[in-house]
Design a protein that fits this description.
With about 325 residues, the protein is mainly alpha-helical. It folds into 2 domains: about 210 residues, Rossmann fold (3-Layer(aba) Sandwich); about 90 residues, Tyrosyl-Transfer RNA Synthetase. It is about 55% helix and about 10% strand. The chain contains 12 helices and 5 strands. Strands 1-2-3 form a 3-stranded parallel sheet. Strand 4, helix 7 and strand 5 form a beta-alpha-beta unit. The structure holds tryptophan (TRP). Tryptophan binds next to strand 1, helix 6 and strand 4.
Amino acid sequence: METIETPRKKRALSCIQSTGTPTLGNYLGALRNWVMLQDEFECAYAVADLHAITVRQEPAKLRQQINETFALLLAIGLDPEKSLLFVQSQVPEHAQLSWLLSCHTQFGELSRMTQFKDKSAKHADNINAGLFTYPVLMAADILLYQPDVVPVGADQKQHCELTRDIATRFNNLYANTFTIPEPYIMKTGARVCSLQEPTKKMSKSDENQNAFISLKDDPDTIMRKFRRAVTDSEAKVRYAEGKDGVNNLMEIYSAVTGKTLEAIEDEFTGKGYGDFKTAVGEAVALELKPIQERFTELMKDKAQLEALMKSGAEKASYVAGRTLGKAMKKLGFVILR
Ligand code: TRP
């Protein structure tokens, strides 16, 4: 029971899009931290599937990816007993609050979002209204759960700032309704780059399959991709400017094994890149093995997966419903009991 001596844990919320299998970069940079945050914070984590349809999706594939992303969250060690785990589209309050917030967001604000500018340049044939209002839905995702912090990568910082602006505006117009959340840019997260163009972030949408490690890649594929990773002609494992490929592999190895960069340099003194790449590949394959085993188990039992989604959605809807009800009441809507 909560007492004065045990103040409530701070709340954290984050979501992952259900487009494609997350990469090693998503895992080391973000997802692995989500697992650790479970002890320090009261966490809510969701599969952001509504966000996925801002670009055209194939229905059967979308369904598969929603199931897989949810299973993956469980497989990496997120615990439904500790954290709120759910699928966004299964909690209708997200779409509802999104409308209320969109009427409190300016066209100019959304026009300035760099992700919108990038994505509309990339999908010039489908610049739909959803792509434009994407950050409002994200604000709803966040504000419904009244979190203190939002663990995100640096690329989502601008959306978090907008969320704060919308929430502050709403609070000022109608009295306090929403907690103003802080973006929580994870310090411990590794920035993992492409194995083929190591100045670019590792991305699951890269056309070159060798550029990224998917969390579903089997050990042989992992070894092959690391063997093909771009390095340099110095043939010396050391962390230095201009050695982006080697630096990236060192960072990955460090993130997975916990070894420092200096320890890694020592370990490979007098050895070539071949040995080093093999060691990195083996360490990654070993790290992913238990996750992949749990994932396979979870995907075999659709009934259990759905049951977990259902209980997550019910709990989420309870929390979200309270915030939505509060916001609607403040706005002047007639609330039926
Ligand atoms: N836009 C985020 C991304 O692409 C995903 C996301 C959706 C999210 N809703 C969110 C992240 C709420 C944090 C909080 O990574």
